[in-house]
Amino acid sequence: MDNLITQTKTQKFLRSDVALTDLTRMLAVFARERDWESFHSPRNLLLALVGEVGELSEIFQC
User: Fold this and answer.
1) Which domain holds residue 45?
2) CA–CA separation, 15 and 8 (whole Å)
3) What highest taxon heads this organism's lineage (predicted)?
4) Looking at the domain assignment, is residue 13 inside a domain?
5) Alpha helices in the chain (DSSP H)
6) Exposure winner among 6, 26, 47, 62, fewest CB in 10 A?
7) Can you tell me the distance from the alpha carbon of 45 to that of 39, in angstroms, rounded to the nearest whole number?
């Protein structure tokens, strides 16, 4: 997974050429590391993420 992320001293960036299958795998690892698998399916995690992105986009609306 590390090769999918570009890291600077202060920030991490997801490379722009990452495939959807790689993102799916990263999401599964993220959930597994936090023991969320029994509570959240990949679909539910994605919907929660989309909701958070929507809230963030409100901040940047002009």
Assistant:
1) 27-55
2) 12
3) Eukaryota
4) no
5) 20-33, 42-60
6) 62
7) 10
Q: Which neighbouring-strand residues pair with 6?
A: 13
Average pLDDT score over the chain: 79
Whether residue 16 lies inside any domain: the answer is: no
Structure tokens at 27: 């999401």
Residues 29-38 have pLDDT tens digits of 888 899 888 7
The token duo for 36 is: 């969320």
Structural tokens at position 56: 């963030």
Entry field: residues in the chain: 62
Find the farthest-apart pair of alpha carbons in the chain and give their distance in angstroms, rounded. Answer: 40
Query: Which two tokens mark 2?
Result: 């590390």
